[in-house]
């Protein structure tokens, strides 16, 4: 059942645009799905290596700006040299945005993983703030606080098949759903590989992992590259879907949203960011129909606190534990009696000196 459930969930969500007629809720699902991708990328660091990044929104924003500028084109002067870039297809910008964010993940990983704990958190926050200030003040390139409008939507296809421009919400929904499924499979393959087991070993006991020959920097930087690239991909999707971005994309609230999705869903689990993202991505929208904006955030915070206190390991580990208890067969009296007899014989052997303590 555990192996089949992801396919059942995927099949269910594939039918959503067929029966969900309200375009606002479909829009909400698209945005929530994009942030689920970003939360999955953060889970690689927080869940599988144990490193908390509070500047993860920097990779998200870098992917958004690189993808937007690649598809819009730009002209700027650097040290007297005029650089002009003509617009490229949007899907090329999406790829370049992911690569740029992955490269930044490599650079930050090389520098930041020399420190641990609170120092690593400070480095990541500082990096995000520097990137935000660059986007705010480099007006010639990013248009600063005036934002980058008119970002073209994604266009998929080839010359011999024809092109499809993703204007509609249902089209973007299916694109996000496919990318979430691919990211899920990629992360699962990575986690189950020797590289993933090395990351988990570093999370559980770094000293012991180092003593058996696992390179701390190598595997943590690898996680940072994958995490940054996936967050950049999510940022590019966001830019081409919303079609306008500004420095507010680097808000600390976006990082907090990703962290909440990972922790409440279950860090270190494949489905955790998806479950947490679905709940906390849709909760404000449903609360909006019943209470005002101030009460919404209060209830949002209360819901998060309840989940953390009642299910400290997260929602997904708790559900897995409940399923395991339900599937576990009850012990029969005979088997219990056999175990008592075996325990009695072991005690007898121990008392006679035949079993070493």
UniProtKB/TrEMBL annotation:
Q: Where in the cell is it found?
A: Cell membrane
Which InterPro entries does the protein's record reference? ABC_transp_permease (IPR001851), LivM-like (IPR043428)
Q: What membrane topology does this protein have?
A: Multi-pass membrane protein
A Pfam family for this UniProt protein? Answer: BPD_transp_2
GO molecular-function terms, A-Z? branched-chain amino acid transmembrane transporter activity
Where would you find the membrane-spanning parts of this chain? 30-50, 57-82, 88-108, 120-139, 170-187, 208-234, 240-263, 270-291, 297-323
- Residue ranges annotated as compositionally biased, kind Polar residues, are 342-357
Q: Where is this region: Disordered?
A: 329-357
Identify the domain of life: Bacteria
Q: Which PANTHER family match?
A: HIGH-AFFINITY BRANCHED-CHAIN AMINO ACID TRANSPORT SYSTEM PERMEASE (PTHR30482), HIGH-AFFINITY BRANCHED-CHAIN AMINO ACID TRANSPORT SYSTEM PERMEASE PROTEIN LIVM (PTHR30482:SF20)
Please give the name of this protein.
Inner-membrane translocator
**Source lineage:** Bacteria, Pseudomonadati, Pseudomonadota, Alphaproteobacteria, Hyphomicrobiales
């Amino acid at each position: 059942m555990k192996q089949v459930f992801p396919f059942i969930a995927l099949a269910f969500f594939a039918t959503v645009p067929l029966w969900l007629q309200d375009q606002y809720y479909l829009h909400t699902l698209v945005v929530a799905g994009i942030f689920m991708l970003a939360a999955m990328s953060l889970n690689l660091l927080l869940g599988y290596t144990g490193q908390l990044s509070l500047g993860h929104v920097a990779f998200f924003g870098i992917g958004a700006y690189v993808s937007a500028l690649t598809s819009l084109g730009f002209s700027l002067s650097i040290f007297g040299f005029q650089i002009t870039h003509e617009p490229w297809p949007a899907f090329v910008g999406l790829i370049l945005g992911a690569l740029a964010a992955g490269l930044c993940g490599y650079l930050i990983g090389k520098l930041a993983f020399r420190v641990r704990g609170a120092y690593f958190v400070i480095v990541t926050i500082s990096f995000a703030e520097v990137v935000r200030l660059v986007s705010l003040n480099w007006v010639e390139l990013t248009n600063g606080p005036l934002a980058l409008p008119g970002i073209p939507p994604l266009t998929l296809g080839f010359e011999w098949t024809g092109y499809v421009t993703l204007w509609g919400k249902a089209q973007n929904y299916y694109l996000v759903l496919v990318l979430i499924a691919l990211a899920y499979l990629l992360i699962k393959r990575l986690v189950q590989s020797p590289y993933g087991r090395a990351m988990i070993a570093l999370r559980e006991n770094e000293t012991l992992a180092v003593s058996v020959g696992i390179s701390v920097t190598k595997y943590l930087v690898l996680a940072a590259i994958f995490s940054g690239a996936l967050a950049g991909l999510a940022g590019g999707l966001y830019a081409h879907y919303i079609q306008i971005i500004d420095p507010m994309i680097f808000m600390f609230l976006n990082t907090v949203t990703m962290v909440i999705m990972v922790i409440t869903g279950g860090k270190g689990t494949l489905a955790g960011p998806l479950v947490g993202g679905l709940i906390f991505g849709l909760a404000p929208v449903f609360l909006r129909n019943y209470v005002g904006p101030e009460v919404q955030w209060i209830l949002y915070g209360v819901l998060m606190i309840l989940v953390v206190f009642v299910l400290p390991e997260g929602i997904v580990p708790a559900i897995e534990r409940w399923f395991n208890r339900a599937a576990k067969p009850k012990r029969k009296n005979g088997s219990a009696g056999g175990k008592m007899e075996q325990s009695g014989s072991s005690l007898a052997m121990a008392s006679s000196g035949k079993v070493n303590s």
